[in-house]
Amino acid sequence: xxxxxxxxxxxxxxxxxxxxxxxxxxxxxxxxxxxxxxxxxxxxxxxxxxxxxxxxxxxxxxxxxxxxxxxxxxxxxxxxxxxxxxxxxxxxxxxxxxxxxxxxxxxxxxxxxxxxxxxxxxxxxxxxxxxxxxxxxxxxxxxxxxxxxxxxxx
Amino acid sequence: xxxxxxxxxxxxxxxxxxxxxxxxxxxxxxxxxxxxxxxxxxxxxxxxxxxxxxxxxxxxxxxxxxxxxxxxxxxxxxxxxxxxxxxxxxxxxxxxxxxxxxxxxxxxxxxxxxxxxxxxxxxxxxxxxxxxxxxxxxxxxxxxxxxxxxxxxxxxxxxxxxxxxxxxxxxxxxxxxxxxxxxxxxxxxxxxxxxxxxxxxxxxxxxxxxxxxxxxxxxxxxxxxxxxxxxxxxxxxxxxxxxxxxxxxxxxxxxxxxxxxxxxxxxxxxxxxxxxxxxxxxxxxxxxxxxxxxxxxxxxxxxxxxxxxxxxxxxxxxxxxxxxxxxxxxxxxxxxxxxxxxxxxxxxxxxxxxxxxxxxxxxxxxxxxxxxxxxxxxxxxxxxxxxxxxxxxxxxxxxxxxxxxxxxxxxxxxxxxxxxxxxxxxxxxxxxxxxxxxxxxxxxxxxxxxxxxxxxxxxxxxxxxxxxxxxxxxxxxxx
Lengths: 154, 479
Known about the structure:
heterodimer; A: 154 residues; B: 479 residues; 2 strands
């Protein structure tokens, strides 16, 4: 489901259809998270991506008024080069990883509650409190950057 | 977290606080001069805090950070670079932007990112540090947004850095899948107990090398370097060339050492190829450049190739040499970019080599300073660059890495040609140009003084390196 709708995102000619398929993809991914007992991640994924970011996407597309006709002609050779490069990466990765046996003991869940909000908060504010604070600085930096670049010229 | 850990983290907290102080100063509408001086004082405070913290080391904030002598050396180097970059920024931005103040917030935040990289011993802190560094850099590169060049450079860096972050995360995920841990030491322990070389781990490391290679502009991932160096404001270029690369290199060294990657022949081969390719491509492409900023970009690609030769053996001597090399390299590059900043006009940065023609007859001191910096980059005796390159060669030869050592020698000779070409331009026939009046005598004076102090430091490093090497050794033993 996720793969199919992700494929549809790329194949669709109409950008609005692409965005709608993208929403389906996000729902499918959230479903995966919830099935893996990571409820918090699933819900956040829905709210942030399927909710906020998709609305932004739709607005941008509406404001830009993209149509299939106005789309600039892409260079054929560039397309070919892209396909070859992507195919090479896929080939290398598949070749490298096909022999890798995934051990059954790689990730052992202590109990089924690891994805719950309570556990997450506990870990976040004890063991990982410093990176948590640093990531707040990261957002500050992103905010300052956007304001600086987006400021109206005078 | 206990008191000791807080005290050891103090320099980093101060760095974060510095950016907040600048925000507050902007909110109170204080002048550029006040902000510049406050920023300088804050950086001095960070240095003092670092010296204070050095008595407490090593301190580990398990499992995220490892603050030891190694981290201290790199953070100190970073803060010194940023001090100098900040000094250059004043005369550069005072002439150009209506409002050059936000620049300092981003500069300090970027430094914090690089400093976090140098103390991180966990994938999470690595990633957050790297993102903090790159997010600040996106905005810094495109800071002069009225210039097409700058915006182009910013977008290029944004797209490529985002892709490289994706590679980094994928690599981390693979290593986590294999070992079940994101902390360097635990990963190393898990790898020792598991028999044989696991494919997942090697592939994950390969993915991470792509991201690191991008940040360090190593050869197959170097395509952004010249355009970004040329398009970014000159002080920002100096920041990218020194501080951001120092931070990334620090975390690479720590990862490499903790995991003991030198035991994996495959990884060594990959780094060998990167080093040789960087040396050859960097030096060859620099030959044809007509712009000093682009030339320095290619030269820095080559220099990180040289640095990887010292890094390949993965022993303690390699780390010591790497620190010394980074020290002399950053001083040299800061001098070169400082000169470009001084000569830049209001409309555009002085990069074109034609503009440097006959500089010696107009501004003898500036030309002499630039000449010394270029000689150091080329590795002429009596400068820091020569000894740094000599130590790299010595470490490589000790480990019998004959192939990269030979390439290093040959490419250095090629490199000498284009450095000398620039120098000969400096002493060529002068073209009359209108004299630019200086706006801020005080800041021009301090910039000149800092340039001359750095040149003296460079020569001191080249003639009496013992004190510095002993200091580096002593710090590296604290772990």
